Amino acid sequence: MIESWRWYGPFDKITLPEIAQTGASGIVTALHEIPYGEVWPVETIAARKRQIEEAGFDWVVVESLPIHEDVKRGAGDLDRIFANYRQSLANLAANGIHTICYNFMPLLDWTRTDLAAPVARGGTCLRFSAPRMAAFEIHMLGRTEAEADYLPEVVQQAAIWFQRATEADRETLLNSIMAGLPGAYDRYDVPALREALKTYDGIGQDDLRAHYARFLQEVVPAAEDLGMRLCVHPDDPPRDILGLPRIVSDADDIAFILGAVDSPANGLTLCSGSLGANPANDVPAIARRFADRIHFAHLRNVRKDPDGSFEEAAHLEGDTDMVDLIAALLEEEARRRQTGRADAVIPFRPDHGHDLLSDAERGTHPGYPLIGRLRGLAELRGVARALSSGALSSGALSSRATA
Ligand code: DNO
Ligand code: MN
C-alpha cells in the first residue's frame, strides 16, 4: 500500500517538509481554490504537482474533484458541467494523475456535532451526537419530529440540550456541522441552510440515484479512455441527513453505483470510518466484496452508541477490525500483482486523527491534525508491515511462542 497524507495545499498549516517526517510518500490534495464546476487548468495542476514533487512526494490521488450541486439536483447547465468535468480529468491525466476521489453527498460533506470531544486519556476527537443533531434539526432548523426521525429518547435529550444551550453553544453546534465543507465555499447560517435545503425539495433517493447514474454515464467512459480511476467516497454519516437523501451508504448502494457503469474506471474509496458508522455495515466484508474496484482507502475507526451517536476512535480501536480490513486490502493487492494489474498498489491515508499534545494550538483543519494523524499512520503502517512480512501466516510467531 502507498502511505499517503492529505495536504490542503499552500494554505495548509502543515507544510510539505513536515509531512515528509511522517514517512508518507504520497500526497492527496486538490485545487481547493477552483470553484465547483469549473475546469482545472493544465498549468495550475502542473504547478501544484511540481511543488509536491520538489518536496519529495508523488501526487497520488486527487481528493476531491468536486461535483457541482446542479448535478445532484439534476438541474441547470449540466452539459457544460459534464464537459468541464471531463476536461479537468483530461488535464489531470495529461499531468500523469490518474486516481480521482469525489463524493455524492448533497450540500454537506462529512458531518459532526462536536469537533473537540474529550478522549479518555487526553486529546480530543470528532463526534456525532444524535441528540445534538436532533436539537439542530428540530429546534434550530424547525423540522418536525416526524421529519427528523430520531429515537424518542434522542428527541427528549435534544429538547433538554436545547433548553440549556446558550447562544454560543448553538453557534458552536452550527459551526461544527458546517466544518466538513472543504475550502472556503458555501458555509451556511441557519436561514441560508434552510434556503439551500429547499433546493432539494422533492428529490428522493431514486431521483438522486438517477442523477448520479447520469453523471457516471457522462464521465466514466472519458475516464476509462484516459486510463483513470474515479473512486466515490461514501456518505458520512452513512444515512439521510437533514432530510437530504444519501445514496452511498451501504453495500447495496455501492453495488448500484458500480453496476450503473460497469467499468474499472468507476470505483470506490473505501472509507472505513464513514462506512463503519452504520452498525449494519461490515466494513471488511464490504472491502472484500468490492475489492477489485477499490482505488483508494481512508483508514480510521469509529465507536458507535446505540442511539445513533458515534465518535472517531483511535485508528486501531473502535468497532471495525482494522487488522482484518488491512488484510483484505493486502489480499487484493496480491491478487492484482498475480494478474499483472498496473494499479496493484492501493494508496491509503490515515483519514482524520485525534487532536493530541500540541495539535489544538496549531489550528489545523478539523480532523486533520499533525500529531494525531502521525500516530494513526504509524499504527496502520505497523499493521500492514506485520501482515505483509509473512511472519503471521508462516506460523513463525506461534512456533516461537511454543519453543
Ligand atoms: C473527510 C473526508 C471527506 C472526503 C470527501 C471526498 O475527512 O474523508 O471530506 O474528502 O467526501 O469527496
Ligand atoms: Mn474518508
From TrEMBL:
Q: Which Pfam families match?
A: UxuA
Task: Give the record's pathway.
Answer: Carbohydrate metabolism; pentose and glucuronate interconversion
User: Gene3D superfamilies recorded for this chain?
Assistant: Divalent-metal-dependent TIM barrel enzymes
GO molecular-function terms, A-Z = ferrous iron binding; manganese ion binding; mannonate dehydratase activity
Q: Which domain of life is it from?
A: Bacteria
Top-level EC class as recorded in UniProt: lyase
Signal peptide: which range, if any?
none
User: Can you state which reaction this protein catalyses?
Assistant: D-mannonate = 2-dehydro-3-deoxy-D-gluconate + H2O
Keywords in UniProt for this one?
Answer: Iron, Lyase, Manganese
Q: What is its EC number?
A: 4.2.1.8
Q: Which cofactor does it need?
A: Fe(2+); Mn(2+)
Q: Name one GO biological process term.
A: D-glucuronate catabolic process
The family classification in the record reads: Belongs to the mannonate dehydratase family.
The function of this protein is: Catalyzes the dehydration of D-mannonate.
Q: Which HAMAP family match?
A: UxuA
Record protein name field? Mannonate dehydratase
Look up and give the organism this protein is from.
Szabonella alba
Q: What is the lineage of its organism?
A: Bacteria, Pseudomonadati, Pseudomonadota, Alphaproteobacteria, Rhodobacterales
Instruction: State the gene name recorded for this protein.
Output: uxuA
